[in-house]
Amino acid sequence: MATYRELTGAGVPTRAAAVLVGVPRATAARTPRTPVLVRGRVPANKLTDIERARVLAVVNCPRFVDLPAIQIYAQLLDEGVYLGSISTIYRVLTANLQVKERRRLARTRPGRSPSFSLPVPDRSTPGISPSSPDRSRASTSTRT
Fold it and tell me: Are 103 and 66 within 8 A, CB to CB?
C-alpha cells in the first residue's frame, strides 16, 4: 500500500497505480485498519513550566485554597490578573492531582454512621395486635 500511495502522490492516476501495484482500486483507496500515527503540534500558547508553577502557587495560596477554579479565575480577573483560562487552571490542577473538593469539610469519625430509625411501637397494650382487626370501629357501609 505504501507503493500505491507513493505513486498517487507522485501524480500517477489511481487506476494506473492500482494496476502497477496489482491491487484493486477499492482496496487501495480503503482507509487502513491501523491508523497512521501523526504527531500533534505543540500549541503556540502552551504554558511553560514556570507559568504552570505560578498558577499552582496562586491556586494553593491561603486566599484561594477553599475556592473552585472558576471563582479563582473570576477574582483574579477582577484584579486585572490573567494566569490562564478556567480549563487551563483545571488542567494544571489535574496534572498535580488536586482536582477534588477544595473546601475543608467536616469528617465523620470512622466506624460511626448516623442511624435513622423509627421508634418501635409499644406492644404491651393488651388486646391490640397488628394482625387483629380493630373492633372499635363499626362498619358504616352495608352491602346488599
Answer: yes
Whether 104 is in a domain gets the answer no
> Rounded to two decimals, what is the model's pTM?
0.46
pLDDT tens for the 144 residues of the chain, in order: 778 888 888 888 888 888 888 888 888 777 767 776 777 888 888 899 999 999 999 999 999 988 888 999 999 999 999 999 999 999 999 998 887 765 666 666 676 666 677 777 766 666 555 565 555 555 555 555
Q: Report the domain count for the chain.
A: 2
Look up the domain containing 68 and give its range.
49-95
Cell numbers describing residue 65:
485554597
Sign of the torsion formed by the C-alpha atoms of 89, 90, 93 and 95: negative
- Positive or negative, the CA dihedral 61, 66, 72, 76 is negative
Instruction: Say if 102 falls within a structural domain.
Output: no
CB neighbours of residue 96 within 10 Å: 14
Check if the beta carbon of residue 58 is closer than 8 Å to that of residue 76.
yes
The single-letter code of the amino acid at 34 is T
